[in-house]
């Protein structure tokens, strides 16, 4: 479980295809604190550390993960938002993030907000998925590339978030442009409420 508070950006240093899996090797400042089998969020995707060598570590993404996320679009040199799993005795500074990306969305608009930036994202409209809690609500939470954010002006298949300069400079939001594909995880509380409502009918 994660909080959506990104620790830093890791850099992809190697990509290796193994049948339908992809091994990603990355470099970040806390590599020496990692251990094999540890869970780390990568752009919001929970992946297991499978190898550590010098100042790099490797994680493996399977086909299901690649189909649902933007990890398959990564190239060597790209920045990836990383966060280690939440400590049970720590503060929940963001919101409950499972690290189970639901789908991808595309940035369709960016607007200056007198220092900050509004990013608008669009995802495929699927009414069946929406009935099961895969949607956003005004002032609710959403995770974009692993970053816990507050929703502004949601529609059936779009939402906007406001990014302050600190977040933009210290996450890969600095690399996002119109057309960029991002990972999104909808709020787990909304999914549970939608499921309970279904059984109450």
Key phrases:
15% helix; 201 residues; globular; mainly beta; single chain; six-stranded antiparallel beta barrel; 40% strand; six-stranded antiparallel sheet
Radius of gyration: 17 Å
Question: So what's the overall shape?
Answer: globular
Class computed from helices, strands and strand pairing: mainly beta
Let me know the number of strands: 12
Q: Ranges with pLDDT <50 over ≥5 residues?
A: none
Q: Quick one: biggest sheet?
A: 6 strands, antiparallel, barrel
The sequence of SSEs as H and E is EEEEEHEEEHEEEHEH
Beta-strand percentage?
Answer: 35-45%
Question: Mean of residue pLDDT?
Answer: 92
Strand order of the largest sheet: 1-2-5-4-3-6
- Helical fraction equals 10-25%
Number of helices: 4
Describe the overall structure.
The chain contains 4 helices and 12 strands. With 201 residues, it is mostly beta strands. The strands form 2 sheets. A 6-stranded antiparallel beta barrel has the order 1-2-5-4-3-6. Strands 10-9-12-7-8-11 form a 6-stranded antiparallel sheet. Strand 3 and strand 4 (45-53) form a beta hairpin. The chain starts with 7 loop residues before the first strand and ends with a helix.
